[in-house]
Amino acid sequence: MAGNQVGKVAIVTGAASGIGRACATRLAQDGAAVAVLDLNEGDAKTVADEIQAAGGAALAVAADVADPESVARALAATRDRFGPVTILVNSAGKTGTKRFLDITLEQWTSVLTVNLTGTFLCCQAVVPDMVEAGWGRIVNISSSSAQGGQALMSHYVASKGGVIAFTKALALELGPAGITVNTIPPGFVDTPMLRRDEARGRWGPNTADDLIARTPVRRMGLPEDIAAACSFLTSEEASYITGQVFGVNGGRNT
Ligand code: NAP
Questions:
Q1: pTM of the model as a whole
Q2: Highest taxon of the source (predicted)?
Q3: Fewer Cβ in 10 A, N or C end of the chain?
Q4: Distance (Å) from CA 236 to ligand 1 centroid
């Protein structure tokens, strides 16, 4: 692979599926060696195999972003294989739909732990390599639901709002070290998570056509739309962009 990321090493979390998978594939096309990190080892291996079959460098890493020891093992495996990590894309996520009064503390904590604490843990694990290199790129996948709010998802929306605020704070702290930190809040992107939500009735009475009609560009997003933005934000050319909420949502939220 010959792209602008040749020689760089990336970790993409949640990379066995959907947006993470597309980001991992795109970063490999850009030339980075990519750790395909996910809870789901079998699917992570499939993605890593696909990347390698296309001529890229990839390693499947089974890990839980919510578990600090698991994250540490994943980083060690990636460093052993490819060297220090200077690109991190946090895409692992957990959704949920519940009336506010029905959300249990356990459910609240579980969603916050994967989406927000998982992002914190992965950043904290990888930042020392970036500081050492004097260069780093972090992209946190948040959600357009944290920009506009979303009924019946207050735990999820709170976790993603936390990711946006965390991104802004981390960008201020890490900018002087040559590390940029940005967040992409996707909206209505056609992934297994979105389709599972549809099957569980989480779209309410809405069909895909209803939601497309309310999307200014009149289509669903594709994982590759997010991956294209991720490719740019992790590139050298994006060195003056940090702490930004980089919406990729067909104009649904501005
Ligand atoms: P997806 O297709 O379900 O992919 C998410 C991946 O993350 C899955 O492979 C999942 O594994 C993995 N994962 C979940 N918990 C994990 C953990 N603790 N450690 C490691 N991996 C874990 O979903 P997606 O739509 O691509 O979502 C990617 C990100 O975009 C998420 O953060 C989501 O909140 C955000 N997002 C998506 C949309 C959209 O329209 N699709 C909109 C807004 C925000 P399992 O399948 O085994 O759980």
A1: 0.98
A2: Bacteria
A3: C
A4: 27
Which residues are known to be catalytic?
Answer: 156
Between the CA of 252 and the centroid of ligand 1 the distance, in Å, is 20
Using the atom order of ligand 1, give the atom closest to the CA of residue 156.
34
CATH topology of domain 9-238: Rossmann fold (3.40.50)
Q: What is the pLDDT of residue 5?
A: 96
Residue environment code for 166-205, b if the CB has 16+ CB neighbours within 10 A, otherwise e: bbeebbeebeeeebbbbbbbbbbbbbebbeebeeeebbee
Residue 164 pLDDT exceeds 90: yes
Q: How many CA atoms lie within 13 A of 63 on its CB side?
A: 30
* Residue pair 144/252 in contact by the 8 Å Cβ criterion: yes
- Site residues for ligand 1, CB cut-off 6 Å: 13-14, 16-20, 38-40, 64-66, 91-95, 114, 118, 141, 143-144, 186-189, 191-194
Percent of the chain beyond pLDDT 90?
94
